[in-house]
Amino acid sequence: MIDFDIDPEFQEQIDWVERFTKEEIEPLDNFMRAGRTKDGNPIDRDGWRAIRAYIEDLKQQVKDQGLWGFHLGPDLGGPGLGQVKLCLLNEKLGKTRMGPGIFGCQAPDTGNMELIAHNGTEEQKKKYLEPLLSGEKHSAYSMTEPHAGEPGEFICSAKRDGDEWVINGEKWFTSNGAGADFLIVMAVTNPDAPLLERASMFIVDRQTPGVEVVRNVHTYGTPLRENYNVRGGGGHAYIRYSDVRVPAANLLGTEGAGFVGSQTRLSGGRVHHAMRAVGVCTKALDMMCERALSRKSKGELLSNLQMVQQDIADSYIQLKQFRLHVLYTAWLIDKTGAYTQEIRKEIAAIKITAAKVNHDIIYRAIHLHGALGMSNETPLGDMWMSAPQMGIMDGATEAHKSNLAKLLLRDYDACEDLFPTYHFPKLIEEAQDKFERVIDDYLAA
Asked: So what CATH class is 262-409?
């Protein structure tokens, strides 16, 4: 039986998170958007120290609630909530920008925690995982390349040289790469092996000689000049690895298991993106409804116009269907405790839908707001810029649709007859044969 009910104690935690995000994190988000004081002056050094201390206090409040790193199991110091409860919490955090960081569950660190936890040696866990879990260090995942995002086309290589590996190549869109303490790099170690056995993963300290941030690429709306600020965090780094030497002990997992091992990270990340997409779209729908009740066109409230009513209704239906699918996928993961073929099918489906739902609902909200929706004075601009990302990051929508179709087709068999199994003339003939026997048996009795 599918059951999304939660106990009263956890509902209290959800309620606390909702209040906490509204009263503490959202004001912090808004203050950071301006980046200056009310009188227009930039924040001085003492001001930034105060803000950092404030953020650390917020993190401590989260820890006191037992919700720090809530995506982690008890073996990694987390509460081990399960995926359904993660959904319900991520929906709240999805409405904020800084929420995931304050709760210790921000990307790309979350996925990298899972990678090291599943594939790392005890030494790697102590050196890299523990400070990652505590928030002392931050990481990045360096996988895609400038010419391709498809594993079969990767050319960044790592070659063994005694007790070291030497990495050469370029990586593209390494989120948080410029500000990371260390990177997990996917590199081809055996180009002649079968596709899924060609690459390996390596832990590379950011300051290792030969690691060069060529540019710190940003998304829409950020001035291009910011791409050349390669010292700060944020952004998606374009990184060049030139004769980067790392100890053999920095191989993450076994040699040749990079692509297979990465699925642990990517599958979980796709689910978490979908969970937070629910929160983003809920916020967009809330804004749409407030606007419809507040503004008039030709003397009539927008909420009374049928086209507006249609947009609101369509958005609500899309959101509820999507949310239930995400919850169902989370429930399946909780039930099985593994990313089985059945679960991978559902993950692909919600990944595809997340992009569509984000696009549709946010666009309707922008349209309803008119010129204000096109401005940078509401959250809609940032939300809209994230919509196309949902169709690209962690695998393009088209790739997931192809994979989903293949997984679905495995549950069916081809019909060897000239006509399909559901062809009426054949079915009627079979039914006639059956009921002739029924009639004969009845008469004989």
From this structure: mainly alpha
Q: What is the pLDDT of residues 112-168, one digit of tens each?
A: 988 898 899 999 999 999 999 888 999 999 999 998 877 789 999 999 999 999 999
Number of neighbouring beta carbons within 10 Å of residue 29: 17
Q: What is the pLDDT of residue 173?
A: 92
Task: Provide φ and ψ at 128, rounded to 5°.
Answer: -115, -40
For residue 206, give the nearest of 216, 197, 198, 196 by alpha carbon.
216
pTM: 0.81
Q: Across the chain, how many H-helices and E-strands are there?
A: 15, 10
Q: Amino acid identity of 243?
A: D
Question: For 90-119, what is the mean pLDDT?
Answer: 89
Q: Which amino acid is at 123?
A: E
Q: Structure tokens of 393?
A: 């990051």
Please give the Cα distance from 82 to 93 (Å, whole number): 17
What is the CATH number assigned to the segment(s) 125-252?
Answer: 2.40.110.10
Secondary structure class of 222 (helix, strand, coil): coil
Q: Is 409 helix (H, G, I), strand (E, B) or coil?
A: helix
In this structure, which CATH number among 3.40.190.290, 3.90.76.10, 1.10.540.10, 1.10.10.10 belongs to the domain 8-106? 1.10.540.10
Q: Are strands 164-175 and 236-247 parallel, antiparallel or unpaired?
A: antiparallel
Q: Which residue has the higher pLDDT, 276 or 79?
A: 276
Quickly count: other Cβ atoms within 10 Å of residue 436's Cβ. Answer: 10
Average pLDDT, rounded, for the chain:
91
Span 1-27, mean pLDDT? 89
Delimit the domains of the chain by residue range: 8-106, 125-252, 262-409, 415-445
